[in-house]
Every structure is written in structure tokens, then in C-alpha cells.
Amino acid sequence: MIDCKNCLPRHYGLFCALKEQELDILNQYKITQTYRKGDFIFREGENPKGLYCTFSGVVKVFKTTESGKEQILLLSQGSEMVGYRSFFSNEKYHASAQAVSETTLCFIKKEGVQKVFKTSPELSFVFLKKVCEELRQSEEKFTDLVDKTVEQRLAQFLKMIVGNVNCNNQLPLSREEIASIIGARPETVIRVFSDWKKQGFIATKAKSITILNPQFLEQ
Prior knowledge:
This protein is α+β, with helices and mostly antiparallel strands. The protein has helices spanning 20-28, 84-89, 110-119, 123-147, 150-162, 175-182, 186-198, and strands spanning 30-35, 40-42, 50-56, 59-64, 70-76, 81-82, 96-99, 103-109, 202-205, 208-211. The chain has two domains: 4-141, Sandwich (Jelly Rolls), CATH 2.60.120.10; 148-218, Winged helix-like DNA-binding domain superfamily/Winged helix DNA-binding domain (Arc Repressor Mutant, subunit A, Orthogonal Bundle). The chain is 38% helix and 23% strand. A hairpin with a 2-residue loop joins strand 9 and strand 10. Helix 1 runs antiparallel to helix 3 (110-119) and helix 6 (175-182) packs across helix 7. The longest helix has 25 residues, at 123-147. The relative contact order is 0.14.
């Protein structure tokens, strides 16, 4: 089991400012589990029983349309919580969460989360800040879909996903999944990758990608 006191990703997440006594509570009510690629963490319609925190790897949160197509809502990486909105609103999960690479998550039972929030009232303000930041990011994502080109959105995605130390230059998502995230057509994503490869910006092999010219991601 991962000890919260020695967890590096924790310092970048919701529980970054907890004291030793509060970390002891988390450890008491927490279990750590590793998921293989393709394993579900939870499914749409299930009842939340606690909080999931990503220690390593990548988790996709998605909804399935009536036609059976996946619409990816977000990717969760190290230190981020998964499914917390349904947990705190006491609702069923509105989406499913699935590991897209080998992923280690810490699950904190409901009783433990409640105890920590009662012990550390200031945690509520930290949580409120996180919710506001995610709302801002959602607004920015909507603006990006309108104002930015596919190339710009794809470059932004690469900066995020390849920057994850656990990815090791691997793209754990298919071209169709990437297209879903950035709001583009799969064939357009394939074309852009092909153009970048011809220009010497990237090198690809299967699902691995090497950034040969990082400056192009800033354009």
C-alpha cells in the first residue's frame, strides 16, 4: 500500500496541505490497486462509495452515446481525483472511468473522506478552488474548439500526455480517442500526425511517439 505521507503526487492534489493526523485517517480508510489497460474503475450508473485518486498512469472518463460511440470527457493523471463530483453530490456516476495504460489508484472509503473533511475544515476551500479551476478549464476547452485549429489542439494534447512521466513517450489512446478529446475527426488527426512526421517534428511507431522538435508544440 502507498503511504500518503510519502506520496509525491499527493503534493499536487486536493490533499496537498493535510497534516500528519489527517494523513493517518486517509491511510486507515484507503486501499491501493493497480489496473491493467482496459480495466474499468467504475461504470456509468453505479453508486460512488468513495474517492479515487490517480497515483500513476492515465484514466479516461467517458460517456457512451445512444449510437454506442464513446465521448471522452477528460483524462486523469497523477494526483488527480476521479468521479469526485458524483461522490460529493451523492448521485450515480454520470460517466465511466477506464484505465488506458497500467494505472495505480488509491481508493478512499466514504467514511474516511468525511472524517478528513470534518478534521480539516480548510479542505473545503481547497476543494472549492479545484472545482472552480475545472470549470475554468471546461470553459477554455469550449473556447479552444471554436478558436483553435486542429493542429493547435493536438499540440496542446501532446504537451499534456507526453509530459506524463509514466507514459514514456507512449500514446495510450487510439487516434479515434484522441480525436474525441480534441473535438476533431479521426482522419484529420491521422493526417496531422503524418504531416508532422514528414516535417521532422515527431517520430512515430505503433503507439509510441518521440518529439524531435519540442518548439513546434509552442506554435
